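Course assignment 3, question 2. Fill in each field.
Student: A.L.
Task: Predict the tertiary structure for the chain below.
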Amino acid sequence: MLRSQPGRSFEWRVTARRGFTVLEVLLAFVILLVGCVSVYALFGRALISHKRAIDNTNVAVLAGNVFDDIAANYNPTYLDRNKDGVPDAGEDRNSNNVPDWFEGPGGRPRVNIPFIAGYYYEIFFSRPNDTDLVQCLFVTVKIYWTRPAEGTKGAPEAFYRTVYIKDLADSGG
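Answer field:
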């Protein structure tokens, strides 16, 4: 800034600027906006990953419960009299792609089996060819869950386990 004092010639004296220019504020705002948009995009992906992790946990717990229940209650609930590899109560006799035991009121099971709302499963049995393993049953559980936003069935998660059943040879299964 140019100042004049009495008796002296003009001299240039720079005074300190105060505040920010409009251009600096605009540049800071653009940088902040890019950072916020990036964080919001990460939140969306994190929510999807969190939902998938919850589904995976529920599916694993449900599969463990099903295997334990088969080992404990094979005769009354999971018996496969016609030996087609599917429990008699869990067959899909009306061909609607839902096992019959999940067709109770409100999608709840009609029989006392492990259940988590929004998940259903199919069970498949096979017997080993080895005659020394007559008490063993190879069990495959495919668990499905619905995606509420889409109203569609998700891809199944498959779990495999060999279950030892004490009276399997006499059960007709």
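Instructor remarks: Strands lie at 2-3, 11-12, 119-126, 136-147, 152-153, 157-164. Residues 20-170 form one domain.
Grade: pending
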